Amino acid sequence: MKTAMLNVKIDPKIKREAGKIAESLGFSLSAIVNASLKDLTRRKTVSFSILEPNVALTDVIRKTRAERGKGKSIGPFYSASTMMKSLNS
Q1: Tally of structural domains, the chain
Q2: What is the 3-state secondary structure (H, E, C) of 50-70?
Q3: Helical residues (DSSP H) of 2-79, grouped into ranges
Q4: 41 or 70, which is more confident?
Q5: Which of 24, 25, 34 is nearest to 2 (CA)?
């Protein structure tokens, strides 16, 4: 199989972490990049899987759970109009 070089600028910390994860899964980082590029050419779309919420979302989730625990939750809404009425009140 012919190969071509691809030079990519990436944060060294991300490269190290990704390399460790790839290795723990039994892959080289090169194999992961190749598979990702093959998937891009096959699907003609890019998809990312977010397994952990970011700090802002984690904070909102924590606050919402605390409010729900105090009985201050609103909803569920069964139509957009009832949701909008609640938001506007």
Answers
A1: 1
A2: CCCCCHHHHHHHHHHHHHHHC
A3: 12-24, 29-43, 55-69
A4: 41
A5: 34
Mean of per-residue pLDDT scores for the chain: 89
pTM over 0.85, yes/no: no
Does residue 87 contact residue 75 with C-beta atoms inside 8 Å?
A: no
For residue 58 the two structure tokens come to 């984690």
**What angle (nearest 5°) sits at the alpha carbon of residue 24, between those of residues 12 and 33?**
55
Q: What is the pLDDT of residues 51-63, one digit of tens each?
A: 777 889 889 889 8
Q: What region, left, alpha or beta, does residue 52 occupy, with left being phi > 0 and alpha being psi -120 to 50 degrees? A: beta
Q: Is residue 17 part of a domain?
A: no
